[in-house]
Structures are given as structure tokens and as C-alpha cells.
Amino acid sequence: MFNNTYHLDILYIIQYNAVNGDAMTNESFENVILELRRGVIVMAVLSQLDKEQYGYSLINGLKEHGLEIDQGTLYPLLRRLESQGFLHSNWRIEADRPRRYYVLSDEGRTLLPRLKEEWTTIVSMMKKML
Amino acid sequence: MSTNLIDTYVSEIGHRLPRKTRADIEAEIRSILQDMLEERSQKTGKPVDEEMTLEVLKAYGAPEKVAATYQGERYLIGPRLYPIFITVLRIVLIVTGILAAIGLGVAVYQTTLTPLNTFETIIKAFANFGVSMMIALGNIVFIFAILEWSLFHAGAKVDLKGLQREKEWDPRSLTKVTSTNQVKMGETIAEIVGCFAAIVIFNFYPQIIGFGYTTNGNWYVGAGNWTFIPLLSEAFFKFVPYLTLVWALTIILDIVLLRMGHWNTVACINSIGLKVIGIIIAVVMLAGPSLLAIAADNLIASLGDIGAAQIVLAYLSQLVRLVLWLAIIVGSLEVIKLTYRLIFNRELPLNIPIKK
User: Fold this and answer.
1) Sheet holding A97-104: strands in order across?
2) Assuming Cys at both sites, which of A129, B77, B92, B236 could form a disulfide with B232, CB separation 3.0 to 4.6 Å?
3) Cβ distance B239 to B281 under 8 Å?
4) DSSP B355
5) What ipTM, to 2 d.p.?
6) Is B23 in CB contact (< 8 Å) with chain A?
7) In whole angstroms, how far apart are CA B11 and each of B17, B18, B73?
8) Is the pTM of this model over 0.80?
9) Other beta carbons within 10 Å of B94
10) How distant is the Cα of B72 from the closest Cα of chain A, in angstroms?
11) Under DSSP, is residue A99 helix (H, G, I), strand (E, B) or coil?
12) To 5 degrees, how large is the angle CA A76–CA B65–CA A104?
């Protein structure tokens, strides 16, 4: 009786580790990938705002390029970039309703080529490593 | 109906946002939702209805989640202040614990021990300790929350300065010799905590500086009438408004110094001014009437005989004089140090030569 319970406990522990271990690995993978994408998103957004765009058109434009960004990430990011001085925004009334348009500021226009340069260096460096 | 849903949804997000940015973010989300509905309506060839609105809102996310994305990380006590907060908390809790243990010892010693009142004494001592700890914890958290707010919440500029300082960090600063002009964070925060505690105790809880006894001779427990003997006289409490002003100004100066990160001429002059006022108050206290409110007669009831009462009183008045003299000496040394800093305002040489 004692032995049976003991074996069951061990089985249960093994099973628990197998199930939760997998879940943890997947979650960790997701986190690492999210970390990697975070910096790229800023660059992608700035690259699309040479001409002014409103939020929803920007999210669709990025999607067409294959980059799907969560709305909860994009809109706060646009505000942050604006408060850092890299973007300008203004409200405009279109078809009887207001839309907020974002465009690169002078600082943003100076930053973008430097980001591109940095990106090229990173890519060639990583290609050598991987 | 669908407009109502959007209004409710947007205001649900809005009331979780800071007042300053609320209206702007609400307008932006409303505009995005309308864009999403328009697109969906075009794709499906159906007019916008309640079902479609519900789908769009579901896709956009729960209001609390959406509001959180606009907030960033917020701290009551952030990672920079946390280690100092823990140190201060540990010291204060240990001191509170020691004082409570002494109090319990005195109470047990003074009580005629019976199983019932020993138990009562210990329970009361633990309750007092618990209450003192909660008050201490609350006050420390309050001070640090104000520091966090005034130092780091003030804006990105402070943060950027902090980052720049970290970039210029010199490993040689690990040796004992540091820049004379640098503000020492630990010391300054300890001074803020001390001044705050002094303001709170002398202005709001003067009754804790003294002691009480009951007519049956027990200090803590007993059924007799409770008598309280204040330790400090009215002559002392006349100085409290002036002392409070000095402590409050010291706190303000310390916060300014923490924000600047280094001493400058104006800060030096202000600090010297505050120290000199402190010394003058201590000198006037020393020369003036007794700061102690108790007379030997008051002590007889609890100590038993007049001889013991007179000895205790003599020690107490010597202790007060000693504290005042210490305040004058330490204050004067600080003034000399600050004057030196003011006149020779330059960096001390570092004691490790750089090898190239």
C-alpha cells in the first residue's frame, strides 16, 4: 500500500515536470523572441513615418510588410516616441471624425539613418556568428 | 447602441489613466476603434452593428489591460532607492525591537509577578511592539515614497542625468577616496529620516518622551490610576517650532542635494546657515532654564525613596547637558567641514595612479 502511493507520487511528479517544464520552455522562448523584436519595432515604425500616417493605417502598412504588431504595443510606443521628440503628431478631421497623424520630426529624421547603420552592422556581425 | 458601447469602453480605459493625458488617449482610442469598425464593415459588406462592435472591442482588449500599456512601470519605492530603504528599515526595526525588549524587561521587573499579570504584561508588550513597528514602517515608506516621487518621478531629465552619471562611473571611486563634492546618498537619506522622525515625535507625539506609572507602583500594568510624568519641560517645547523649522529646511535641502548629486556654493552656504542656527538653539537651550520637567518629588512615587530619585534626576540633567554639548561640537565640526569645502571647492586627488 505504502509502495503504491510512493510510486504514484513519483509518477505524478514526473508528469507534472513534463507538462509544466514544456509550458515554461515555451513561455521562455516567447519572452526571448519578444525581447529581440522590441528594438526592431521602434526602427520599423520610424521607417514608415517618413510620410505622415494615422495609427490604424500604420498598423496595416506594417502588416503588409509582414510585421504584425499588437495595438497595445504600437499606440503607446507612438506616444513615447513623440514625447522623446522623434515624432510629431496632429489631429485632423476627416470624414466628420478626428484622426491623429504621426510623422518623423527633425530629430527622428536624424535618428533613422543612424539606426539603419547600426542595424546593418548588427546583421553582418550576427551573420558571422550564427 | 454600438456608440454607447464604445463610449463606455473608452471611459472604462480613461478612468484608469492619469488626468493629464486622459482626454487625448481617449480620443485616440475612439478614433482607432472607428477605423477598425469601418474596415470590418467594408470587408464583410455589412453595416456596423452591436455584434461587430463587440468583436472589435474584444480584439482591442480588456480596458484595464489597454490602460496598463499606457502607464509603463510605476513604483512606490523604485529599484534605486530600494536597497537603502531596506537598510533603513532594518536599522529602525532593530532599534524598535531593542526598545521594546527594554520596556518589557522594566515592566516585568516592576510587576509583582503572578501568572496572570505576567501573561498580561508580555501580551501588552508584544502589542505595543507591533503597533510601534507598524508606525515606523508606515513613516519610512511615506518618506521613501516622497523621495521616489521627488527624485525620479520628476521626469525623464533626472533619469537621463542618472544614466549619464552611470556612464561616467570611474572604478577608482571604489577606493575610499571619493570626490568631496559628491552627495553621499546613504548619509543624506539617514538625515532626512532622522529629521522627519524628530518633527513627528516632538510635534505630534510629545507624550512618548516621558514615562508613566500607576498608583500601585506598576509601570505597565495594574488597576491603579495612570499618571504620566513628562520628561521635557515647557521651556524645551518653546524651542520646538524653531527646531521644526530647521529640520524641515534640512529635509528640503537634502532632497535638493540628492537631486543635484553634488554640492555647490549655494547649497554649502544654506547648509552652513542651518547648522549655525542649530548651534545657536543648542547654546540658548544650554544657558536657559532646565529642559527637564520632572522634579525629585515626582520620582519618589515610582522609585521609592528620595535618595534614588535625586540620583536619577542628577544623571538625567547631566545627560541633557551632554546631548546639547555633543550637538554643539558635532554642529561646529560640520560648519568647519562645509566652510573648508566652500573655500577649497575642488576635487581631492585619487590615490591610484593611472597606468597608460
Assistant:
1) A53-54, A97-104, A87-94
2) B236
3) yes
4) P
5) 0.72
6) no
7) 10, 13, 22
8) no
9) 10
10) 9
11) strand
12) 10
pLDDT for the residue B210? 62
- Rounded distance, CA B206 to CA B291, Å? 14
Q: What is the grid cell recorded at B322?
A: 551632554
Q: Which residue pairs, CB below 8 angstroms and at least 24 apart, start in A32-36?
A: none
Q: Name the residue with cell 537603502.
A: B84
Look at residue B352 and tell me whether its pLDDT is greater than 50: no
Cα B132–chain centre separation: 15
pLDDT in tens, B229-238: 667 788 888 8
**Residues of chain B numbered 48-67 and touching chain A (CB < 8 Å):** 60-61, 65-66
**Cβ-based neighbours of B17, under 8 Å, separated by 6 or more:** B25, B26, B67, B70, B71
- Facing residues of A54 across strands? A101
Q: Per residue in A54-86, pLDDT tens? A: 988 999 999 999 998 888 889 999 999 999 999
Assess contact for B125 and B104: CB atoms under 8 A. yes
- Range A99-121 burial, b when 16+ CB lie within 10 A, else e: bbbbebbeebeebbeeeeeeeee
**Angle of helix B115-148 relative to helix B185-204, nearest 10 degrees?**
120
- Closest alpha carbon to B343 in B269, B274, B254, B262: B269
Arithmetic mean of pLDDT over chain B: 78
Indicate if the pLDDT at residue B227 is higher than 70: no
Q: Are B24 and B40 in contact (CB under 8 A)?
A: no
Q: Does B69 touch chain A (CB under 8 A)?
A: yes
Distance from CA of A95 to the nearest CA of B (A): 11
Across the interface, do B28 and A71 touch by the CB < 8 Å criterion?
no
Contacts of A76 in chain B (CB under 8 A): 69-70
Task: Spell out the alpha helix ranges (H) of B61-179.
Answer: 63-71, 82-110, 115-148, 156-167
Q: Is B66 exposed, middle or buried (0-12, 13-18, 19+ CB in 10 A)?
A: buried
User: Is residue B255 within 8 Å of residue B150, measured between CB atoms?
Assistant: yes
The residue type found at B50 is E
pLDDT of residue A2: 44
- A62 touches A48 (CB < 8 A): yes
Minimal-distance CA residue of chain B relative to A70? B60
Q: Do B36 and A56 touch (CB under 8 A)?
A: yes
What is the Cα–Cα distance from B219 to B155, expressed in whole angstroms? 52
Interface size, chain A vs chain B, as Cβ–Cβ contacts under 8 Å: 41
Residue B305 Ramachandran class (φ > 0 left, ψ -120 to 50 alpha, else beta) = beta
Nearest alpha carbon to residue B107 among B34, B214, B210, B184: B214
